[in-house]
Backbone:
């Protein structure tokens, strides 16, 4: 797969394998990530796999953009899209609507659906954790049912409560810690997604399969 | 041990950051003004990435419960020890029982207090840096408060060798009140209108008061998109400038998210980030000028080389 490589500032390089949320492209990203990590190139600090991109953080005192770019290009040729393991199945209980999901009504009105339909479409979908990011342990999951595809807020909220279940575009996610956020909040889960003191700090890992279970519906 | 006796503002423990965990969404954290943080450590004989105290937009007073050597660096603060005033970018000896004060004074936002031996604090996910939004790192993942006890590690050099060292002016960031910051075009620069890109590179922006360790919001000419402001999320770095649909840019700072879903028009280069970090929210104007990755990396190399010789020969 021919990657597009662009700089993100003077200490990171973005390898793009596509522009959409697609399981096959995402598997290529993870395969490339595994290759780059196995090669342990000097000057690479860490990598961040995302839906269709791999961000490589590097130390510009040790390795140049050009050298890293050549190396990523060559590695992309070797990256095979192979599923390496059976995904874990995780069930996430959700309270939908009310104070738990203050945007649920807006989403229903915007999509011309009933609230019950929105909840059903969200909870009946099996989702894949494509990537993690934004805040510690935040799982980016998809794809959402086409009827739930909703734009982000134009101006992000300054505070979203930990446990909030949200949607944006074709994605759904869960806020692991209190943070700002621009996604539409439709519910809340009591699960703890991140515990820094634990040996296993994260509930989710990329590749997991997730189902949402309706725990309650708050009017 | 240093004991916090009075504090206001954004006072946290920071080391060079929590690298290696960004793939799980754990921010790098670390200092807002990296060169000042490193200089403070080097002045007291520490490795440059040792845990130090960061203070922003406030003041702090501490009492030393043991003899130690400290150094403060940054901008916008004055340091006093016992009854004496010391300039920033100097190291000085502190006797047990003496009081150390960092007071807001003049232009600038952030200062660092390093102590010989560093602060001996248990790391979380391999780092002592405080990540406030995540509520972990540093002291219980929170701002420092009165009564906090900050244990001191073992100094690398005899204390007698460390006081009265000065960081040379050439190795300090060239702070100024209306800075022009160099930027590298971002991955989505083509998602903006020609007018938007022109406005970005020719007009001035003000740092909003709605700014923190995660990001500095900028106010000025809106940067209009020619394509959607939203994209599927991708990796993010400190210095990147995200632009949501409202057209007002947000510069990613030390505690920024590891990924993001808004178009990135450009990234501020490493060497210039401290100049933005020290700007006064609601007041100072900044401008942007385009540069290349190669020129930016050269500028960074020159900066780091100067830092190697930062301690003045007496």
Residues:
């Amino acid at each position: 797969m021919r990657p597009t490589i662009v700089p993100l500032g003077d200490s990171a390089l973005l390898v793009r394998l596509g522009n959409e949320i697609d399981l096959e492209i995402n598997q290529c990203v993870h395969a490339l990530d595994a290759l780059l990590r196995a090669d342990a190139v000097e000057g690479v600090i860490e990598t961040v796999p995302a839906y269709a991109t791999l961000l490589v953080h590097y130390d510009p005192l040790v390795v140049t953009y050009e050298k890293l770019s050549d190396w990523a290009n060559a590695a992309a040729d070797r990256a095979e899209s192979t599923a390496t393991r059976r995904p874990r199945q995780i069930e996430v209980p959700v309270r939908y609507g009310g104070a738990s999901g203050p945007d649920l009504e807006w989403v229903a009105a915007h999509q011309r659906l009933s609230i019950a339909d929105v909840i059903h479409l969200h909870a009946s979908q099996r989702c894949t954790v494509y990537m993690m990011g934004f805040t510690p342990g935040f799982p980016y999951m998809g794809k959402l049912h086409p009827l739930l595809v909703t734009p982000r807020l134009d101006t992000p909220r300054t505070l979203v409560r930990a446990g909030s279940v949200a949607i944006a575009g074709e994605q759904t996610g869960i806020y692991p810690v209190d943070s700002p956020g621009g996604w539409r909040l439709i519910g809340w889960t009591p699960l703890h997604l991140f515990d820094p003191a634990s040996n296993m700090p994260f509930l989710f890992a990329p590749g997991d399969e997730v189902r949402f279970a309706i725990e309650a519906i708050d009017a | 041990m240093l004991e916090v006796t009075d504090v206001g503002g954004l006072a946290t423990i920071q080391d060079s950051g929590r690298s290696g965990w960004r793939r799980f969404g754990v921010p790098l954290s670390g200092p807002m003004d990296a060169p000042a943080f490193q200089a403070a450590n080097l002045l007291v004989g520490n490795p440059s990435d040792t845990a130090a105290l960061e203070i922003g937009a406030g003041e702090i007073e501490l009492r030393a419960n043991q003899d130690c050597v400290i150094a403060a660096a940054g901008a916008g603060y004055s340091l006093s020890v016992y009854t004496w005033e010391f300039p920033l970018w100097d190291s000085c000896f502190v006797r047990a029982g003496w009081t150390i004060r960092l007071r807001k004074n003049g232009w600038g936002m952030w200062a660092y207090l390093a102590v010989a031996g560093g602060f001996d604090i248990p790391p979380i996910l391999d780092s002592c840096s405080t990540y406030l939004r995540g509520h972990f790192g540093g002291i219980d993942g929170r701002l420092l408060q009165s009564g906090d006890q900050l244990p001191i590690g073992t100094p690398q050099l005899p204390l007698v060798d460390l006081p009265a060292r000065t960081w040379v002016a050439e190795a300090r960031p060239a702070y100024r009140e209306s800075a022009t910051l160099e930027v590298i075009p971002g991955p989505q620069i083509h998602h903006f209108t020609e007018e938007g890109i022109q406005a970005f590179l020719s007009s001035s922006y003000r740092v909003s008061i709605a700014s923190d360790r995660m990001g500095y919001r900028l106010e000025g000419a809106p940067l209009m998109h020619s394509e959607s402001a939203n994209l599927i999320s991708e990796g993010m770095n400190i210095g990147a400038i995200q632009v949501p649909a409202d057209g007002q840019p947000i510069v990613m700072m030390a505690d920024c998210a590891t990924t993001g879903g808004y178009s990135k028009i450009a990234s501020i280069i490493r060497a210039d980030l401290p100049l933005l970090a020290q700007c006064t929210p609601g007041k100072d104007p900044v401008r942007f000028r385009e540069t290349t990755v190669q020129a930016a990396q050269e500028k960074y190399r020159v900066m780091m080389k100067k830092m190697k010789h930062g301690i003045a020969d007496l």
Observations:
- Chain A has a mean pLDDT of 91.
- The two ends of chain A are 48 Å apart (CA to CA).
- Chain A has four helices and 13 strands.
- The longest strand of chain A covers residues 209-217.
